[in-house]
Amino acid sequence: MFDRFRALQPKQLVAAIGGLLLFGFGLNQAVSGLSYQSWWDTREALGNGEELSEDDMRAAIAGLGGGLSALNPAMVHDDIGSFYVILAGKLDAGEQIAALEAARAAFATSVALAPGNPFPWMRLAVARFERDPSDPLAADALKLSLLTGTYRQEALVTRFHLGMRLWDRLDAQTQDAVIHQGRTAWTRRGLRNDIIRYWIGAPQPARLAFFNAFPEDEVPELDTWVRRYLDRAKKART
Fold it and tell me: Residue 191 — very low, low, confident or very high, per pLDDT cuts 50/70/90?
C-alpha cells in the first residue's frame, strides 16, 4: 500500500496510522453536512484498511482544514496529521517531506490541545521519526505516549515497533515500557507474528532485552514461533 514510501520509513508504521485512526477521540456533538460525511467516510475507510487515492486524501484534508468547528479540535488536528502521513505514502520523494512536516505540525497541535491522550503522542512520534530518523524528539513523543496510556491494546504493536527502532535513544524506564508493550502483545496470539517481525529487525541490544524478558520456561515456545515465522518468510521469498 505504501511501497513508494519505503525510502523514508517501514510501511508498517505508516499503515498503523490508518489502522488506529478510529482510536483516541470521540465526537463531542453530532455534525451534519457533506464535509462531515466525506471526513467520516474517509476515517472509516482508513480504519477498515481500505485503499484511498491521493485525491481522496487531499479532499479529506481540505474538508477538515476548512473548519468543521463542531468537532473536537484536538481530534481534527490528529486526523489532519494522520491524513497527511497517509498522503505522503502516495507522493513522489520530493513532495513527501512537506507532507510529513505538515503531519508533524498537526500532531503537535493535537497533543497541545489534548496532552493526556496517548494516541496523538504515538502518531507524533511516528511522524517525527519518518520525517527525520535522527530526530531526538521522536523518542520523547513515544515516551509521553507510553506515560499517558500504557495499557492501550490498540497501540501495543506500533509502540513496540517504534520503540525497537528508537532503542538506543530511549531511557531505561522507556525501554522497560517498550518491552512491556511487546510482552503484553505476546499474550495475544494474533499479534505474535508482528512482534516477531519487529523483534528480529531490531538492533541487537533491543533484541537481547526482549529475549531476556521471557522466563526460561517460555523460551521453547518463543523459539517455535520464531522458527515458524522464518520458515514462512523463506517460502514467501521462493
Answer: very high
Please give the grid coordinates belonging to residue 189.
Answer: 496470539
Contact 167, 206 (CB under 8 A): yes
In angstroms, the CA 225 to CA 231 distance is: 10
The Cα angle at residue 44 between residues 40 and 45, in degrees rounded to 5: 115
pTM across the whole model: 0.81
Q: How many residues does the chain have?
A: 238
DSSP 8-state secondary structure symbol assigned to residue 152: -
The pLDDT, as a whole number, for residue 29 is 40
Cell numbers at 114, concatenated: 489534548
- Give the pLDDT of residue 139: 96
Residue 85 has φ and ψ, to the nearest 5°, of -60, -45
Helix or strand holding residue 227 (H, E): helix 219-237
- Which secondary-structure segment (H or E) carries 232? helix 219-237
C-alpha distance from residue 132 to each of 8, 125, 151 (Å): 8, 11, 28
Q: In the chain, what percentage of residues exceed pLDDT 70? A: 81
For residue 11, with 0-12 CB atoms within 10 Å meaning exposed, 13-18 middle and 19 or more buried, which class applies?
Answer: middle
Q: How far is CA 128 from the centre of its chain?
A: 11
Q: Which CATH architecture has domain 1-149?
A: Alpha Horseshoe (1.25)
CA nearest to 129, candidates 103, 154, 153, 92: 103
Q: How confident is the model at residue 68 (pLDDT cuts 50, 70, 90)?
A: low
Q: What percent of the chain has pLDDT over 90?
A: 48
Cell (9 digits) for 145: 505516549
Please, where in the chain does CATH 1.25.40 lie?
Answer: 1-149
